[in-house]
Amino acid sequence: MCSPAKPGSTLRGFTLLELLVVISVIALLVSILMPSLKRARIQAQAVVCAANEKNLALALFTYQLENKGYLPGSLWSEWDWGVKKSELWFYKLFPTYVGDPRALICPGDPFGSQFDFESNFPFPHFPKRSNARAPSCGYGMNYVFRHWYEPKSFNVEHYPPTRPANTIMFAEVGPDGQIESAPLGSALFQVGKPWRDGGRIVWDDGVRPWYEGPTWLTGRHGGKINMASLDGAVHRVSTARNLRQGPQYLDSRGQAADCTFCNLETYGAPWGWTGEYHYSFSHADLYWWTGPFPAYAD
Questions:
Q1: Sign of the alpha-carbon dihedral angle for 106, 75, 96, 84
Q2: Which residue among 108, 222, 279, 286 is least enclosed by CB atoms within 10 Å?
Q3: Strands, E, within the chain: which ranges?
């Protein structure tokens, strides 16, 4: 039983000032803790993303071993150019080498919930037909492999780089600020821009007369992304400067040290690309290609 109040005593609650002080303290603690919690979440997402890339690299190596050094599939997805999205490299890995399509999406990708892996398989395997505009992979292969390949696909054993540990294999794809479904440049390129389907990462980010779309690059992991090299290692690479500057024009010295192949005009580049403009990741000791050029076959 509750004891009755003693004579002369009064029951007293919190005053308005005391409540305001408590609320202010709680708000201050939350404001202090929230950035830490956000940083912890970003770091956790980066760790999971790196694990995804490790698994993808292992899957690619296994595929190459079982296919005499060839990489899986194509790096195009434009339907008008005769390549179905179901023929892209990451579909070649599923389900034999990668059993869960969720491993193809970075957990920090703000558009990850919009990815539709099944929409890209042709009928009747899935109820939907191939949709070139639906994103289905959050990682892109180095586009160098598109431009130097044999009739089947690029063969790492036939054209090995001199420094696999410093040669980009694939990376996660952005951007994180927008995603569009408008045609890319003209009726010939009937896919959404930017190139968010995960098929490839391009060195020049589409610095071409017919392309004005946003960058594929992101800095979602605290101003960094995960990039895998051809030796299977995963690197946390700063992209803040790249995002500020965009693709840069490098002189002959820079090309020789960083990205020699980027001067596409020296060997007859198609469509008049201005290949001297490109993203440089030399600050992370990673390069689009190392060693002599493979035979140009595009």
A1: positive
A2: 222
A3: 139-142, 168-172, 200-201, 224-229, 234-238, 248-249, 277-278
Structural contact between residues 198 and 138, judged by C-beta atoms closer than 8 angstroms? yes
What span, in angstroms and rounded, lies between the C-alpha atoms of 268 and 248? 21
268: left (phi > 0), else alpha (psi -120 to 50), else beta?
left
Contacting residues for 143 by C-beta, under 8 A, at least 6 apart: 75, 200, 201, 202, 203
Question: pTM higher than 0.85 for the full model?
Answer: no
Q: Are strands 224-229 and 277-278 parallel, antiparallel or unpaired?
A: unpaired
Are 92 and 63 a contacting pair, CB within 8 Å? yes
SS3 98: coil
Q: Round to whole Å and give the CA distance between 272 and 252.
A: 19
Residue 170 pairs in a beta bridge with 141, 228
Token code pair at residue 109: 């990708």
User: How do 234-238 and 200-201 pair as beta strands?
Assistant: unpaired
Nearest C-alpha neighbor of 259 from the set 277, 246, 272, 234: 277
> pLDDT by residue (tens digit) across 188-198?
444 445 566 66
Bridge partners, 229 (sequence order)? 168
Q: Do 240 and 215 contact (CB within 8 A), yes or no?
A: no
